[in-house]
Inverse folding.
């Protein structure tokens, strides 16, 4: 009987131990809310972390504003032109066109003077080989020297002598001096038109050279005015924001100088060439008068 009682007690103890094990195993789970409580603060900094991420785009925006919308390539002459106001653009385009016309005039007049000097050299060689006034007239009116100023002078002088002869005047006798004077006046009339003929385009070069910088300065002043208006509206004096607008304005003055400086140089250069050819025509006028006077004295 005692043995059975011990067995029953042993089985009851085992049952109690087996039933108590889950209770003991689940007991540590009670602190779980504390873990959740500690995890909650860790999640809280996530919100501030998002804010710097969002503000990380601000430097790009600031950089774009600093370049005045000129892009990642920075400020270039083309971007400054594209970013300028309409008035400044018109000024720049006008000055660039004036510069192009100045360089075109340079090429045209250089070819013109080169051809003129070559034609004059050939004419003088042929003229000095003439033996009579009729020969002089034939050389001066030939198609080879058509349009040459010295040939026109010789043609006018010999034409006046021929007209005097046709009028029945004695060009080798009593009316020699008056005929020679009329020939000299005819030469002077041709010479008077020579300066106007050779100075074609000089007025344009003079205008570009004298007004180009001021036109560019007008564009600069207008552009800087707009830049200051933008400063007032944006309430910032940051140089990185203001600089692109000022640079665009200053570009107009730069283009004005770019157009004016070559125009002044070309103007002075061609004035020298015109003066040199004028001196050459004066010398030929004296030579022509002497040649005609000599032929009249010979009775030719």
């Amino acid at each position: 009987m005692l043995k059975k009682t011990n067995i029953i007690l042993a089985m009851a103890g085992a049952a109690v131990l087996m039933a108590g094990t889950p209770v003991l195993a689940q007991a540590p789970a009670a602190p779980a809310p504390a873990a959740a409580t500690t995890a909650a603060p860790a999640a809280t900094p996530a919100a501030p972390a998002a804010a710097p991420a969002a503000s990380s785009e601000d430097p790009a925006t600031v950089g774009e504003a600093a370049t005045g919308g000129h892009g990642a390539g920075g400020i270039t002459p083309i971007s400054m032109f594209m970013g300028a106001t309409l008035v400044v653009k018109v000024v720049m385009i006008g000055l660039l066109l004036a510069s192009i016309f100045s360089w075109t005039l340079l090429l045209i007049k250089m070819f013109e003077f080169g051809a003129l000097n070559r034609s004059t050299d050939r004419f003088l060689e042929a003229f000095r080989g003439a033996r009579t006034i009729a020969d002089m007239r034939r050389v001066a009116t030939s198609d080879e020297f058509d349009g040459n100023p010295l040939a026109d002078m010789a043609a006018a002088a010999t034409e006046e002598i021929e007209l005097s002869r046709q009028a029945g005047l004695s060009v080798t006798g009593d009316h020699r001096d008056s005929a020679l004077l009329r020939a000299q006046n005819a030469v002077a009339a041709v010479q008077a038109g020579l300066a106007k003929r050779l100075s074609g385009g000089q007025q344009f070069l003079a205008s570009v050279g004298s007004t180009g910088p001021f036109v560019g300065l007008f564009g600069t002043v207008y552009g800087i005015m707009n830049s200051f208006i933008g400063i007032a509206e944006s309430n910032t004096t940051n140089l990185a924001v203001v600089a692109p607008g000022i640079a665009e304005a200053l570009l107009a003055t730069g283009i004005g100088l770019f157009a004016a400086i070559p125009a002044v140089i070309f103007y002075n250069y061609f004035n020298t060439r015109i003066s040199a050819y004028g001196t050459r025509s004066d010398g030929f006028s004296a030579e022509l008068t002497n040649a005609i006077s000599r032929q009249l004295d010979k009775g030719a």
